[in-house]
Amino acid sequence: MVLGGSLKSELGGTLIANVGKSRVPRHVGIIPDGNRRWAQARGLGKEKGYAFGIAPGLALIEACRALGIEEVSVYGFTKDNVKRPSAQKLSFQAACVEIAREMAAQGVALLAVGDDQSDQFPHALRRFLTRCGDGIKVNLLVNYDWEWDINGLRHGALMSREVTRLDLIVRWGGGRRLSGFLPVQSVYADFYVVNDYWPNFRPEHFAEAIDWYGKQDQTLGG
Amino acid sequence: MVLGGSLKSELGGTLIANVGKSRVPRHVGIIPDGNRRWAQARGLGKEKGYAFGIAPGLALIEACRALGIEEVSVYGFTKDNVKRPSAQKLSFQAACVEIAREMAAQGVALLAVGDDQSDQFPHALRRFLTRCGDGIKVNLLVNYDWEWDINGLRHGALMSREVTRLDLIVRWGGGRRLSGFLPVQSVYADFYVVNDYWPNFRPEHFAEAIDWYGKQDQTLGG
């Protein structure tokens, strides 16, 4: 899958025009929710939605790179998610493998974060358990679980220890909750919700989130 | 300070009328932000706002009790907050002591959660380090810190181990972030933001939050 050049240009142009001089987050979290509801609304099986989330993901990473964002964490799937029907599970696992390959091909410094001691961790992603490359940092959460993550503290450190603190989290699909997304890195993150489903991603969603973020007060409790 | 009977009745009546048969959360988190901005907007010193947050807090707890909510966690102050100017620190510490005394007098099963090994933990709250009473459970976070909390895992369990998972978090003052509020208990909580400052609390704010919560999908990742 290759992202069309025109979408890339559109994104970069829209964002740079809209965001202007506002403060840009260093690290953005992405919760790409609503794939199943998107598919159902089109009369497709729920499992068909995930494949339509790949191009938006690549477009978003490209937009982050254009804005100078240093790090992006993307909620792929969780250990709870794999309890869903097999057709769904295979679809979101395949989508994660495909977007990872594309990102790596584009020079992203990719890190897969999740329980790799389980069969549910896709074999094709094992090579991303160590970050390499010097492009924009992308952390892809695959077979992730918040409890697995923080239980690392019992043995010295978070399992997600390589993931830095988040400045902004953007969730598509209307849900106003973190759903277990990186609880420790999220403690001071501003939370922006897009009501549209993730496969309906439009550049303006992200531009509006970045613009909104630039207007938030940052006190960190001081 | 005693909550006026008329406000109590107004609250109960409004809530019960508005909420109707919707699903009620078991455990609600409260982030009562905006006290300083409220004071400044009235030409008062920033530290003057906290005292005006006590009556709203008591009113809210009464509303929770009327709705059958079992547990409420209230963000009092953090270890970061105590780095603020002394006048502010003394004011919010005094407000926490006063609301705790009032709640205890009203039969609330109160638990103070925070770093009590520090001088910043108010002495008058030490008696609430063990929960007693059989009324509605209220967890008051005083000299709390998310890192202090999760570092408990290094020694066996969260420091906030007695606080259960949150269903709904309501934040006043417009901020769309958790600001370190109980990160582990917040992983699946729905997050509702009221733009008004906390001392401007009105029963409708909470009724709308409860009503909104009742319409949210609860999947817990499944």
Please give a structural write-up:
- Two copies of one chain form a homodimer.
- With 222 residues, chain A is an alpha/beta fold.
- The first copy, chain A, has six helices and six strands, in the order H-E-H-H-E-H-E-E-H-E-E-H.
- Chain A has a six-stranded parallel β-sheet with strand order 3-4-2-1-5-6.
- The model of chain A is unreliable at 1-12 (pLDDT under 50).
- The A-B interface holds A 78, 80-81, 83-84, 146, 150-151, 153-154, 156, 175-180, 183-184, 186-192, 216-217, 220-222 and B 78, 80-81, 83-84, 146, 150-151, 153-154, 175-180, 183-184, 186-192, 216-217, 220-222.
Features:
222 residues; alpha/beta; six-stranded parallel β-sheet; homodimer; disordered N terminus; 6 helices
